Amino acid sequence: MTAVHVPGTPIVSEGRLVSTSPATGTEVGRLPVSAEADVARVVDRAREAAGWWAGLGFAGRRGRLLRWRGVLARRIEELAELMHAEGGKPVPDAIVEVLTAIEHIDWAARNAGRVLGPRRVRSRLVLAEFSGHLEYQPYGVVGVIGPWNYPIFTPVGSSAYALAAGNTVVLKPSEYTPVVGQWLVDSLAEVVPEQPVFTAVHGLGDVGAALCRSGVDKLAFTGSTVTAKKVMAACAETLTPVLLEAGGKDAMIVDSDADLDAAAEACVWGGLTNAGQTCIGIERVYAVEPVFDAFVGKVVERASRLTVGADGADIGPITMPGQLDVIRRHIDDALARGGQAVLGGTDAVQPPYVRPTILVDVPEDSLAVREETFGPTLTINRVRDADEAVARANALPYGLGGSVFGRRRAVAIARRLRSGMAAVNSTLTFAGMSTLPFGGVGESGFGRIHGEDGLREFGRPKAITRRRARSLLPATTFERTPADVARLVKVTKLLYGRRR
Ligand code: NDP
């Protein structure tokens, strides 16, 4: 009996990874699978190229990265169509994703020199005879492992910042979106043909594992928490530093003074865009009692208008066929525990699609509240007040993003969320703001991409002190006299000994 191919499931055939559309099963492309020795060779080549790339300096890299940005901008429709074909993502969503990635390339290229370049730092009274100098030097080769759900935004979030900092990058795209990953790498090679500064290796999870062990100087991972732990364990063997962007279960809080129409609109988009397959997607909503019913009504009204299908629809197919079972299980479990489906429900799962599903009054110990669903579903639970909403939002080990709708207390509530990011009166917007760092806490990982912190993530701080005068109070020499030490004691008490 021959196995039936489930559309979207990658196949390895004759040493090639065959990528297919999750909607139609049509082949989108095939790429050679990298053996462990191939990964090592690609990393070696990237290391040779790293010297040349670092030697270009910030200005040289800036010009090239801005030209890369230009290629992506000019070919944005072509790339969005490819993302649609390979991952099933609606073209408008793909356009927004590429636009966001372009903005990050632009900012990283323009700001790397300012943030990472050599600078003087102030010295203090102690060691005033020395000047301080700081710069962030590139690691060398950065390995980037990416997921399928945002196959341009996530690898660019690491790669553009790593490249701008002077590293070369070896990317392992998800086996579900290797063709898009290769397109991205090829687009940079168009404007930087001299050396392989951005290359890709392809295959299944074992190729990612080989990249972790390949001797890269830093590993930037984006994917599930389960895999993040494996990556960290593999990298621990060689003390390779890691950046982990892992899963989430982001909450939205709707306070009593929120604009309910705006909240409902943002909730539907933040929860259901990309068919809910978004790490920072809204999965749980806590609305305070006085506005709960009105808010739910507005969400249902909007979500029921969304179209589902292959082409031109608001919600495309579930990219990873295996996820359909997870989504179904979460819906079934929520209903079995007493939750109610006010839109959709178990029947909403019709492979490869899932219709929008809104579940209310779902017990907090349900799978749909506690675990990443990664489908176009939302739980909306009623809470007494904002304090209870914050307590529930913070009750999970994840802590990636979040959203708050309200007026008077909204910013204060956002600050109390145990998460790396939060959006007030919008959803997901922090991901597109290149000046802000992106990353999570707890099981959502650690380290940051984007913004100044995202640039520093890809540079080793190098601290230099330089003598500029003779020491009046010699401390760090065997030549010091007992009188010098007595003076040191006196100065220490004078400088730091005050009681207040
Ligand atoms: P996975 O963890 O399954 O895979 C992520 C990447 O890791 C893939 O390229 C995968 O390769 C690779 N991989 C698999 N096994 C190993 C291994 N042992 N060692 C090294 N690499 C390995 O995640 P998904 O691709 O399913 O992506 C969805 C997840 O990503 C969700 O949890 C989502 O929340 C999270 N995510 C987090 C983001 C963030 O910024 N925090 C952003 C976007 C998504 P292969 O595909 O071939 O198995």
TrEMBL record:
<protein>
    <recommendedName>
        <fullName>Aldehyde dehydrogenase</fullName>
    </recommendedName>
</protein>
<dbReference type="InterPro" id="IPR015590">
    <property type="entry name" value="Aldehyde_DH_dom"/>
</dbReference>
<comment type="similarity">
    <text>Belongs to the aldehyde dehydrogenase family.</text>
</comment>
<dbReference type="Pfam" id="PF00171">
    <property type="entry name" value="Aldedh"/>
</dbReference>
<dbReference type="InterPro" id="IPR016161">
    <property type="entry name" value="Ald_DH/histidinol_DH"/>
</dbReference>
<feature type="active site">
    <location>
        <position position="245"/>
    </location>
</feature>
<dbReference type="InterPro" id="IPR029510">
    <property type="entry name" value="Ald_DH_CS_GLU"/>
</dbReference>
<feature type="active site">
    <location>
        <position position="279"/>
    </location>
</feature>
<dbReference type="InterPro" id="IPR012394">
    <property type="entry name" value="Aldehyde_DH_NAD(P)"/>
</dbReference>
<dbReference type="InterPro" id="IPR016162">
    <property type="entry name" value="Ald_DH_N"/>
</dbReference>
<feature type="domain" description="Aldehyde dehydrogenase">
    <location>
        <begin position="16"/>
        <end position="463"/>
    </location>
</feature>
<dbReference type="InterPro" id="IPR016163">
    <property type="entry name" value="Ald_DH_C"/>
</dbReference>
<dbReference type="GO" id="GO:0006081">
    <property type="term" value="P:aldehyde metabolic process"/>
</dbReference>
<dbReference type="InterPro" id="IPR016160">
    <property type="entry name" value="Ald_DH_CS_CYS"/>
</dbReference>
<keyword id="KW-0560">Oxidoreductase</keyword>
<dbReference type="GO" id="GO:0016620">
    <property type="term" value="F:oxidoreductase activity, acting on the aldehyde or oxo group of donors, NAD or NADP as acceptor"/>
</dbReference>
